[in-house]
Amino acid sequence: MNLRHLEFLRLIVALGSFERAAEAAQVTQPAVSQAMRALQSDVGRVLFERCGRRMVPTTAALSLARAGEAIRSTVDTLDSGFKAGANDHRGRVLRVGMAPAAGLLYGPRVHASLLDVAPRFVLHLETGAAPRLLSQLLCADLDLAIAPLPRKMRDDRLRLRHLYTSEPLIYCRPGHPMAHATSLEQLKDASWVVAGAAGTPGNVIGEAFRVRRLPIPRIAVRCTDYAMLLRLVSQSDLLGVVSHPALLPPPGLHAVQPLPVLEGLPHYAVCAFWRGGERTTEVARVRDHIVDALSDPSSHTD
């Protein structure tokens, strides 16, 4: 038995005609008539009798309509309960996605800002590349994303606010045989560790070589975060790019040093992103407070 057909029957009984039922269900009258024929075949009972120009529901139809009303009431109650639970869950959780560097730079500040405005919220943080995070944001799987602005990004569904511009430099361990290199040409035979996918602040070295018509360097290790990158650079002959000086470890811990390379590396604008056109909710208000706090000039990363 098709529950949609039961709903049509309920509307016919409640509204008094096939035509009004079709209007209420936003379907055509022939669709309602066909559904009633199918329902009548399913239950094996006559559901309507002709009285003049009208089709009058039989006792069997009235009984089935009452059953349909009970089913509909139960479904509505369950649906309301699930929605209330989901809304309550959303009201207590802020979902923020961050690119690897952004997570290290802004994770603690996001948490501190959340404590200021909504201390009972739970902060759900995840990291990933900018394209994936923005896709999750558009699908409403995230409430806020902090990530590099993709090249040539154009999407009117997203709002953004600039937070900082990356300052990438090449780093090596002290005593590295290439520690005094002053050009990318001198580094063409080096092996590299990168944090992130190609075309992101954690992996700009390929772009830097390509724009200068140099052979693409050998990427020996790909990792997901700068902590791992710095550990590898400090304990091997791998070279790596760090997109912001604030990501460097304290002196003496996994010691690394910048190379005096004269060519500049590609820079990226890192932004806070959120969906535009949303109705104002508690989550949206909390998100806006955090964006304002992060973009406050007095709180910029040094």
Mind explaining what this structure looks like?
This protein has 302 residues and is α/β, with parallel strands linked by helices. It folds into 3 domains: 3-89, Orthogonal Bundle (Arc Repressor Mutant, subunit A); 90-166 and 269-299, 3-Layer(aba) Sandwich (D-Maltodextrin-Binding Protein, domain 2), CATH 3.40.190; 169-258, Periplasmic binding protein-like II (D-Maltodextrin-Binding Protein, domain 2), CATH 3.40.190. The chain is 42% helix and 20% strand. It contains 9 helices and 12 strands. A 5-stranded mixed β-sheet has the order 4-3-5-12-6, with helices on both faces. A hairpin with a 2-residue loop joins β1 (48-51) and β2 (54-57). The longest helix has 34 residues, at 59-92. The protein starts with a helix and ends in an 8-residue tail after the last helix. The relative contact order is 0.13. Residues 83-91 have low confidence and may be disordered.
